[in-house]
Amino acid sequence: AAGVIQSPRHLIKEKRETATLKCYPIPRHDTVYWYQQGPGQDPQFLISFYEKMQSDKGSIPDRFSAQQFSDYHSELNMSSLELGDSALYFCASSYKIETGGIPPYFGPGTRLTVT
Amino acid sequence: GEDVEQSLFLSVREGDSSVINCTYTDSSSTYLYWYKQEPGAGLQLLTYIFSNMDMKQDQRLTVLLNKKDKHLSLRIADTQTGDSAIYFCAERGGNTGKLIFGQGTTLQVKP
């Protein structure tokens, strides 16, 4: 079965650079979530999109932005990178939140290292 | 507010049962989930329970929900060394369905 695809899987950037992470949800899933997991931490919710509109916002820095495109893939754009942005970034997708729906399935994550 | 608490570490012998506990605060949570994460890997959905259920069994996994006490547990029968990982419970509620995770319980299985 198709899973959530994230690219790239690994990314190394220097401080003050920018990075773009991509997420391709499971086919027919209409909701995408982004999470950040720092070393030894639990995943922290950043932002979500439902039908291409931002549906919720968590602890996402102002330096980060995200969007969901017409094909439902999503991109997380990160600017002015800081050492503390080094983390695993997960994307998850699900379908029809309003009905209780299918549990979110997570992608394999993108490991971002800022040097 | 939303908060999920877990004990941080559990050590068991291979073949024993493991019980990982979780408490949550959001009484409007509709679904509660258990995810498994191996070192450096992604989050694998293990099982989930709807808030109007008391128990759910799936092969070696049993989830118990005490809604009154907002307490969730995951029992793993016949624990194997391959079960060694971090286990996260998560609650899902509200209109947008975001997940709020606990801190994770590291399960160590000794041979």
List the helices and strands and how they pair.
The complex is a heterodimer of chains A (115) and B (111).
Chain A: E1 5-7, E2 10-13, E3 19-24, E4 31-37, E5 44-50, E6 53-57, E7 64-68, E8 74-78, E9 87-94, E10 105-106, E11 110-114
Chain B: E1 4-6, E2 9-13, E3 18-24, E4 31-37, E5 43-50, E6 55-58, E7 61-66, E8 71-76, E9 85-92, E10 99-101, E11 105-110
Parallel strand pairs in B: 2-11
Antiparallel strand pairs in B: 1-3, 3-8, 4-5, 4-9, 6-7, 7-8, 9-10, 9-11
User: Judging from the principal axes of the Cα atoms, what is the shape of chain B?
Assistant: globular
The average pLDDT score of chain B comes to 91
Q: What is the average of the pLDDT values of chain A?
A: 92
Number of DSSP E strands of chain A: 11
Content-based structural category of chain B: mainly beta
Tally of DSSP β-strands of chain B? 11
Q: What assembly state would you assign to the polypeptide chains in this entry?
A: heterodimer
- As a percent range, the share of strand residues of chain B is over 45%
* Residue runs with pLDDT of under 50 for 5 or more positions of chain A: none
Strand content of chain A: over 45%
- Counted by DSSP, the helix tally of chain A is 0
Share of residues in helices of chain B: under 10%
Fold and architecture overview:
The complex is a heterodimer of chains A (115) and B (111). Chain A is mostly beta strands. Chain A contains no helices and eleven strands. In chain A, the strands form two sheets. In chain A, strands 2, 4, 5, 6, 9, 10 and 11 form a seven-stranded mixed β-sheet that branches. Chain A is globular and about 40 Å long. The relative contact order of chain A is 0.33. The mean pLDDT of chain A is 92. By secondary structure, chain B is mostly beta strands. Chain B contains no helices and eleven strands. Chain B has strands at residues 4-6, 9-13, 18-24, 31-37, 43-50, 55-58, 61-66, 71-76, 85-92, 99-101, 105-110. Classes of the chains: A mainly beta (115), B mainly beta (111).
